Amino acid sequence: MGYTPCRLLLMDNQQSPPHPDTRRQLQMARSMCWHCQSEVTGEYFCDRCVKVQPVSKETDYFTCLGFPRRLLLDPQKLEAKFYELSRTFHPDFYQTKSADEQTISLSNAAVLNTAYRTLRDSIQRAEYLLALETGSVKDIRTSPPADLFEEILDLQDTLEEYRASERDSDQGHRLRATLQTEQEALERRKEGMEAQLRQLFADWDKLQDAGEATSLARVERDRILKEMRDLLSNRTYVNNIVNDLAATIA
Amino acid sequence: MIWQQQSPKQLFPNILIFDMARIVGIDLGTTNSLVAYMKDGQPCVVPDRNGRTMVPSVVALTDNGLIVGDSAKEHLTRNPERTVYSVKRFMGKGLADVQDELVYFPYHVTETGGVIRIRLGQKSYSPPQVSAMILKELKLRAEASLGESITKAVITVPAYFNDSQRQATKDAGLIAGLEVLRIINEPTAASLAYGLQQKTQGTIAVYDFGGGTFDISILKLKDGIFEVLATSGDTHLGGDDLDRVLVDLFIGDIRDRYGIDVSRYPDHMQTVRLEAERAKIRLSDELKTKITIELPEDKGRFTRELTRDQLESLVAGIIERTLAPCRIALKDAGLTPKNIDEVVLVGGSTRMPLVRQRVEALFGKQPHCHLNPDEVVALGAAVQADILSGGTTDMLLLDVTPLSLGIETMGGVMSSLIRRNTTIPASAKEMFTTYVDGQTGVDIHILQGERELVKDNRSLAQFRLKVPPLPAGVPRIEVTFLIDANGILNVTATDMRTAKSQSIEVKPSYGLSDTEVERMIEDSFKFAAEDVTARKLIEARLDAEALIKTTDKSLLEAGHLISEKDADDIRTSLSQLSTAKNGIDSRVIRAHMAELEQTAKHLNVMMLDHSLKKSLQGKKVSEVS
Ligand SMILES: Nc1ncnc2c1ncn2[C@@H]1O[C@H](COP(=O)(O)OP(=O)(O)OP(=O)(O)O)[C@@H](O)[C@H]1O
Ligand SMILES: [Mg+2]
Q: How far apart are CA A102 and CA A92, in angstroms?
C-alpha cells in the first residue's frame, strides 16, 4: 500500500453536530421536495407528491426521534418512536418504489438507527447532548482523575505483577484476589458517578423545562454541562479500567 | 415539534400499489436447499413431483451433463471426484481458509484471484457458480409448480456470514438469473416464520445448527417488529463436522482391522461419510446402531456397533463449541438466560438429543421444537419476500451486522467504524486527508472482525481514494461506509471542497470481480437453453429407466396372468424404449414410454390384483371385509 490513510476528526461514529447557530438558520430555511420542488411542511413526506424526504444532515438525533433535548427519556417511549419511524423508513417498504426513494429510505433508516443507538444509552445520550450544546468533541481522558491517582497507580503495579506471575501459584491467587477487590471497589465508584450523573440529568431537564433565559439560568446551565463533562470522562476512564481488569482476571 | 406521520397508503387509500412479480424465498443450505412462497398469507414450501421439499445441495457432472439434487446425490459414491457437495463452506473463501479440511473433499479445489475454483471435468467453477446451479434447480422447481417465470428471490445466509460470503451468495443468485432482492439471515428468517405462527411477544433465542454452520440470534418480538438484539455464530461448525469425527473413527478401525487406508479411495470415503451421517441420524432415535461398510479391493465388509453414548462422547466437544457464541450473544444483548422467554431450534442437527440437552442446560428451559427445523428457514424467507412485495405489512425485521467493520490505520491496527450487533442499515462517515504535499491518493483497506490487529481480521477490500494534488492536510475527502439491509457494505466518497462524489473501484479480497460475475451470467444464459434440453434428456432417461425396471418386475411376477401375445408386445416396447433411452432426444424417449405404458396397461392391472391377493394371503376373510 502506498499511503496509510490519514484520518481527521475521530468522532466516535457520530455525525458531526452542527454548530447551534447554523443549525437554527438552516431550520428556518424552507425545505423543498427533491422530486416536485414544492414546499415541504410535513416531516418526512411531501404534501403534494407523497415522496419520502431525506432526513436533513442538520437534524440532530433528538429532533430525529421527536424528543426534546432532555436527558431522562422514557426508554419505552423512545423504543415506540423508533419502531414507528422504522416502519416509515425501512428499505423493506420501498422495494416497489423508485431508485431515488430507495436511496433516501436507506440513508434515513441508517440515520434513524444511529440516532436510536445513541439516545437509547443514557451515557451516550449525555455525551451527544454535550457535543450539541457545547459544539465540541468529547474529551478522552488519558490520565487518572486526581482523586483516583494513587489508587490507579497501585492498581497498575499489581496488574503488572499479576501478568508476570504464575497464574496457579500462591502469589498468583493472592494478586488475583487483590485485583478482584479492586475491581469491585472501582465498580462501586463507577456506580457512584452514575448516580451523580443522573442527578445532573435531572437538573438539566428541570432547567430546560423552566425555560428561563435569565443570567442565573445561564450560569446554572454552564455548571451542569461542565460537571457533566468531567463526570462523563472520569466515568469512561474508570469503566475502561474495570473492563481491562475483568478481561485480565477472567 | 409535531410529528406528522403520513405514509402514502394513508393519504391515498384507494390507490392500488402496483402488483409486483412474485418473489420466492430460498434457503440455500450446506446440505439441503428449499424454495418457498407465500400463499394466502401462509408460507409454503414447493415440493417436487414426489412430494419431497428438500433438494440436496449436490451437483454432479455426469456423461449427460450437470445434474443437481437427489439424482446428483447418487453420484457421491459412484463418481466422487465429479460430485460437489457442501459447496457453501467455500463461499467467499480463499484456499488458505479451507486448507485443513480439503482432505475430506474428493473433488479438486484450487484458487484463482482469491476465489476458490472447483474442478469438474474440463472446467473449473467458482463456488457461486456451483451454488447457482442449485438455485437454478430451485427456480425451475418453483416455475414448474407455480406455472410462471420466477426472476426475483430472497436468499438466506448464516447470520454470521461476512461481507464476502454474502456477496458471493448474491453473485450466485445473479448467475442463476435471479434478482436477489434481499439477503436475509437464516435464524432471523426462522424467527419470522415462528412469529407468524405463534404470534408471541417477548425475547427469543434462535439456535440454528445445520449441516455446515452454527448461528445464534437473540430477538425481541413486539408489535410485529422483530428486533435482533445480538447475533453470533461459527460459519464453520455443523453436522458435517460431527460426521467427520465418525469418519475418522471408522477409518482408524478399518486400518487397524484390515490394514487398509480407506482415505486413499475417494469412492469408499464417500461411502464411509454417508454411512457415518446415517448412523449419526439413526442414533438420534435409537440408543445403538450397526454400521456396515463395503471395503475396497473386495476385502469384504466392515461392521461395528456404535452406541449413542459413544457418539455423544465423541462429539461433545464440537457441540460445546456452539455454547460460547450463545454466551457472547447473550452478553452483547445485555441479557442473561433468564431473560429468554423461548429458545427456538432450527436446523437438522438440533434433532440430536445431546444438542437439545446442552441448549436446555444453558438457557434453563426446554427448547421449542414444534417447527419443522428443515423448512422453517425457507418459510421465513418467503415471509420476508412477501414483506418486500408489499403483501405482509405488519411485520418488520430489524437485523444487525454480525461483525465489526473497520479500516486499517497506522501500525497495522484496525480502527472500528461500525460495531458488531449494530442495527442495519448502518452508516459511518470518516474524513480523510493527506500527509505529504501533492499526494494524489489515499489507500484504504476495509476489514471485518473483532480483533485488534489487521492481520487477525478478515480483509474485505482495498481501494484508492483519488485526491487532488494539494499541500498536505488540505484535501478533505469524506468516505461513507454504509451497511445495507442485506448486511453488505457500500462505500462512497465525496470531496468536501468541491462536493463532488467519486466512484470507487473496490477490489474485493475474496470475491469475484464485477466483470467476472458478468461473464458468468452470460455463460449461464448462453448455456441455459442447452441446459434445459440436457436436463429434459436426463429426466427422461431416469424416468425411462424406472419404467423399464418396474415393467420388468411386473412381467416376472404377473407375466403368467396375461396372454403370450400381450407379453411379446410388452417385450418389444421394452426393447424399443431401451434403445430410445440411449438416444439424445427426450421427446422420442417420452413417446416410447407412453407406448410401453399403453401396451403394459393390462399387465399392470393384473399386477395390482396379484399383489393385492398376495398381501391378503393368510388373512382371514373377516379381516378383509
Ligand atoms: N435426526 C438427525 N439427527 C442428527 N443430525 C441430523 C438429523 N437429521 C439431519 N441431521 C443433520 O442435519 C444436517 C442438515 O441440516 P440442515 O438441512 O438444517 O442443514 P443446512 O440448512 O443444509 O445447512 P446450513 O444451514 O448449515 O447451511 C446434516 O448434517 C444432517 O446430518
Ligand atoms: Mg440451514
A: 9
